[in-house]
Write a structure and sequence with these properties.
disordered N terminus; globular; mainly alpha
Length: about 240
């Protein structure tokens, strides 16, 4: 006799989430390595505009800053790791602010003072910042080192490196001194606006995933994928450093 009370198992629609997250991380890195020589690459059209511009061009530089952040693979991967286990808006705001402060300081100071280092090395460190955050999310420091770095300080420090990487790249464009400071401020404002837009999209996606049982089950796999992406970026930059 057929059991009419039997209910078919519900499909686990979210079981592919960590795989999708990993594919996204790896796809971003492959696209970055194929399309850019450096993690802070700038589109050819934007390069020409930056090099030829003179005078205060507030809104165009706001647009360029926002575009850089939204298409910045390294920034997005690092920030995804930062907010991975943050649930309260207060905590997210604190960490994002720490990153933004660090990014702003070195972006402005690096260009205005002319301090410059090898861009490959800076971008390799930025790749390792992604590895660090993924390892931190996995509890690796406490398990293997017996020491837990201060997450807020680490976010500020890596924000300094992220900003310095962009400052190093911008200095290659021989920016006009006419309107330089207002344009840099506008660019930085655009970066922060782009960061808000990118984080909003990430938070919406993460919010849906966190409500499912698969989040805790597959968080480890997702952070391993994030770590692999960071190693790929760092390895690519070191290859460029030794072969350029």
């Amino acid at each position: 006799m057929t059991n009419t009370n039997h209910k078919p198992a519900r499909p686990r629609l979210m079981s592919a989430t960590p795989l999708a997250f990993g594919v996204m991380c790896l796809a971003l890195m492959v696209d970055a390595t194929l399309g850019m020589a450096l993690a802070h690459g700038v589109a050819e059209g934007d390069k020409g505009f930056i090099q030829e511009s003179s005078g205060v061009l507030f809104w165009p530089f706001v647009y360029l800053g926002a575009k850089h952040m939204i298409t910045g693979y390294d920034h997005l991967l690092f920030l995804a790791g930062v907010i991975f286990f943050l649930y309260r808006l207060k905590d997210i705001t604190i960490y994002v602010t720490m990153f933004a402060v660090g990014h702003s300081i070195t972006l402005l100071a690096g260009v205005l003072t002319g301090i410059q280092v090898n861009a490959y090395l800076i971008d390799a460190i930025i790749g390792l910042s992604i590895v660090y955050k993924a390892l931190d999310n996995l509890g690796g420091f406490q398990k293997w080192v017996g020491f837990q770095p201060d997450a807020k300080i680490a976010t500020l420090v890596f924000g300094l490196f992220h900003g310095f990487g962009l400052a190093t790249k911008l200095q290659d464009f021989e920016l006009s001194r006419d309107g330089l400071v207002p344009n840099l401020i506008a660019f930085n404002i655009g970066v922060e606006m782009g960061q808000i837009l990118a984080l909003s999209a990430i938070l919406i996606a993460m919010g849906f995933w966190r409500k499912t049982p698969s989040f805790r089950m597959h968080a480890t796999a997702a952070n391993i994928a994030l770590m692999i992406a960071g190693f790929l970026l760092a390895g690519y930059q070191m290859f460029g450093y030794f072969t350029a």
